[in-house]
Design brief:
The complex is a heterodimer of chains A (about 475) and B (about 90).
Chain A: H1 3-22, H2 29-48, H3 57-73, H4 81-110, H5 117-145, H6 160-180, H7 185-206, H8 214-236, H9 239-263, H10 267-272, H11 295-303, E1 307-312, H12 314-318, H13 322-334, E2 338-343, H14 353-360, E3 368-370, H15 371-374, E4 383-387, H16 396-399, E5 418-423, E6 443-447, H17 450-463
Parallel strand pairs in A: 1-2, 1-4, 2-3, 4-5, 5-6
Helix pairs in contact in A: 1-2, 1-9, 4-5, 4-8, 5-6, 5-7, 5-8, 6-7, 8-9, 11-17, 13-17
Chain B: H1 5-24, H2 31-42, H3 46-54, H4 59-88
Helix pairs in contact in B: 2-4, 3-4
Classes of the chains: A alpha/beta (about 475), B mainly alpha (about 90).
Chain lengths: ~475, ~90
């Protein structure tokens, strides 16, 4: 390592830390992107300027190809951001895994002095983490993109956790044996076995995970991708990889913790608990009926309110209803109604998903309020308008012990004076749990596609001369 | 080849704590762009794949490096671009 590499590593590390630091406020956040770009360009330039680099053709081709694929990937609709993110975790894992494989065979070729226990351990960790992140993230991408041959619902079978853990254990044992005897001929032969086992484990890990757990799973895969970069740093003796990977890993860790807390579940429970397969609750007591409201009636209720809280969920994203939600926000705000959007941390398919969708629809971020900030205000709220959300407003989370969502913090929609809930069908939500919010005395249902219903509501305000 | 692995481990621990401290203060509004930004940043793995691709190694190994380089570069380009695209949309009023 020469002075150029070391100096560039320091510059890039500073740039990356500043980049994340500026993300603490939407006003300075874009500066963070520029800092990140500066750090990256400096690091790449320094790495490319090394005297060891004598073949430039393939590097150029790979970089150009990266631009050709990367630019369209950055222009996907914002509803598709979760799958783009999962796909980028897959690419991150793949890069780490491939470099690990390349390094092992290079060391074999160049001589046994390369193999210290420390470096070999880091290399095996890099390969296992990298390849399991690769297939795990590809599976998550497939589920989020609703690819036909990957079931979106959690798929479970008896002994599943045992099978999964056995595959991981086999990868670790094989890795351990190769760490102990890295230069034996059988080690070189069996080395690809670690890769295959890690790839398998990644697939198995995601099969039992349903859509509602995606925010947590994407965060965990984010942490794995970061850790595989750290392991690569240990392998290559490169501090910059270690610092940047650690920043990414800690970000994934914090997001995972936030997501788990927002569902009142542990990591282990998300990964091995198969949420989507939770047994259906048998409703106790008498079966209550929904009460349906007309669009005209709902518009009147909304117009007479002083404070309206709109609670969006994944259904809003599916129906592409965020723009209509913004129009309703405009119409109500014009009439002096205070309108807030209440955002549950796990609403949508990745952390912060709802915020991005609503920001795209031109809702100012001052109107986007977090769950724990809005909840104390819910008793003063005149109308809670639920748009495509279900489990995050289900009061069973507070009361029904034994319900899969028991203990999960929810937005207290039921404490509002009136609840209006837009729902596409009469089926239960993603977790397959009945929602007693919909049958409460002060709840009125608006059945239909969220975009169509919100559009009808907006039309009530804009054309029928309501003032 | 000797690696000063204690100092590497030291760097890792310190960087993790800096990361935890900084990320905890990130606005909750921005968790989606945060993820795409850290994704681009961790694609710094590009410096490793660049060395593997460009050095005087056998072609098989350099192909592995080139694929890794392509994957990292895709993350860098799409990560920074989409982060900026999303952040542009956040307006106060």
């Amino acid at each position: 390592m020469n002075h150029l590499t070391q100096a560039s590593a320091i510059v890039a590390t500073v740039a990356f830390i500043l980049a994340l630091n500026w993300m603490n406020d939407p006003k300075t956040a874009r500066r963070g992107v520029y800092a990140g770009v500066v750090g990256m360009v400096v690091a790449i330039a320094a790495a490319w300027a090394q005297p060891d680099i004598i073949h430039h053709g393939w590097i150029l081709i790979a970089i150009v190809a990266g631009f050709i694929v990367g630019i369209p990937l950055s222009m996907v609709p914002l509803t598709a951001v979760p799958q783009r993110t999962a796909l980028s975790h897959a690419f991150g894992g793949l890069a780490a895994g491939l470099v690990g494989v390349a390094e092992y065979y290079l060391w074999l070729r160049e001589g046994p002095e390369h193999f210290t226990t420390f470096r070999m351990t880091a290399l095996v960790a890099e390969i296992i983490l990298g390849f399991l992140t690769f297939t795990g993230s590809l599976m998550a991408t497939g589920k989020l993109q609703e690819v036909k041959w990957i079931p979106q619902r959690a798929v479970t079978y008896p002994g599943q956790n045992l099978v999964n853990l056995a595959v991981l254990a086999a990868a670790i044992v094989l890795g351990g044996m190769i760490i102990a005897h890295p230069v034996e001929p059988w080690a070189a032969t069996w080395f690809p076995g670690i890769v295959v086992l890690a790839l398998l484990f990644g697939v198995f890990l995601i099969i039992p995970i349903g859509g509602a757990d995606m925010p947590t799973v994407i965060s965990i895969l984010n942490a794995y991708a970061g850790l595989s970069a750290v392991a690569m740093g240990f392998v290559l003796d490169n501090r910059l990889l270690v610092t940047a990977g650690a920043l990414d890993g800690s970000s994934g860790l914090i997001l995972s913790i936030i997501m788990c807390k927002a569902m009142n579940r542990s990591f282990a429970n998300v990964l091995f608990g198969a949420f989507g397969a939770a047994p259906k609750m048998v409703a106790g007591g008498e079966q209550k009926e929904w009460k349906q409201e007309s669009v005209e009636g709902a518009a009147q209720i909304l117009e007479q309110a002083r404070m309206v809280v709109i609670i969006p969920g994944y259904g809003m994203a599916v129906a592409q209803a965020q723009h209509k939600a913004q129009e309703l926000y405009d119409q109500l705000t014009k009439r002096g109604v205070t309108v807030r959007f209440a955002i549950h941390p796990v609403a949508g398919r990745m952390p912060g998903h709802m915020n991005v969708l609503l920001a795209e629809a031109n809702v100012p971020y001052s109107a986007l309020v977090e769950m724990h900030e809005i909840n104390p205000e819910m008793p003063q709220c005149d109308v809670a308008l639920v748009v495509g959300a279900n489990d995050v407003v289900n009061p069973a989370a507070r009361t029904a012990k034994g319900s899969p969502i028991y203990g999960m913090p929810i937005i207290d929609a039921d404490k509002a004076r009136t609840v209006l809930a837009i729902k596409r069908s009469r089926n239960p939500g993603f977790a397959g749990i009945d929602n007693e919010l919909y049958v409460k005395d002060n709840t009125w249902m608006l059945f239909g596609d969220a975009k169509a219903v919100l559009g009808d509501l907006v039309r009530q305000f804009s054309t029928s001369g309501m003032h | 080849m000797t690696t000063d692995y204690w100092s590497m481990a030291f760097v890792f621990v310190l960087a993790t704590f800096i990361g935890l401290g900084v990320i905890r203060r990130v606005s909750r509004l921005l968790h989606t762009p945060l993820m795409s930004l850290t994704n681009a940043i961790s694609a710094i793995a590009v410096v490793g794949s660049l060395a593997v691709t460009g050095s005087d190694y056998p072609p098989v190994i350099r192909i592995l490096g080139a694929v890794a380089l392509f994957a990292s570069m895709t993350n860098i380009v799409s990560g920074f671009l989409i982060t900026d695209r999303m952040l542009k949309m956040f307006k106060k009023e």
